[in-house]
Amino acid sequence: MCAGGPQDVSCVGCEPIPIHNKFKRVKALDGQVGKPGASITDLLSAGWSGQAGTTSIIVRSRDGGQQKYLSKYNVELVDFDVEDGNGDGIFEPGEHAFVRRIRVHNSGQYHFFSLSQIRACDNPSCVC
After folding, report:
1. Is 28 within the bounds of a domain?
2. Which candidate among 5, 79, 94, 95 keeps its CA 20 to 30 Å from the CA of 88?
3. What is the DSSP string of 24-54?
4. φ, ψ for residue 41, nearest 5 deg
5. Does 76 fall in a domain?
């Protein structure tokens, strides 16, 4: 209603003015501590086995080719010789022992790296 006019008459230029108020609640105190949980009463058992799965190894080369393997390598030691350092057949204290003529077999499908790349000792000065 406009000032100066009758109560039920609206004037030009008199529009409702919205009133905005922001209310904020004050933080309340924490509640009481709850009761501790009950011990388990149900018997637990193993679940059912899932379906058998498969895995594969795909090796991609730089030229875009790829090779798929259904199993990893499985290297088995077949044979080896151990020789003493001075060749007299006696392994004396402090003498070097050499493992030579190592034979392995890969019964897996994935290729295994060259044995020339394997170092069989921790000391970097050893001769492999």
Report:
1. no
2. 79
3. -PPPPPP-PPPPPPPPP-SPP----------
4. -115, -15
5. yes
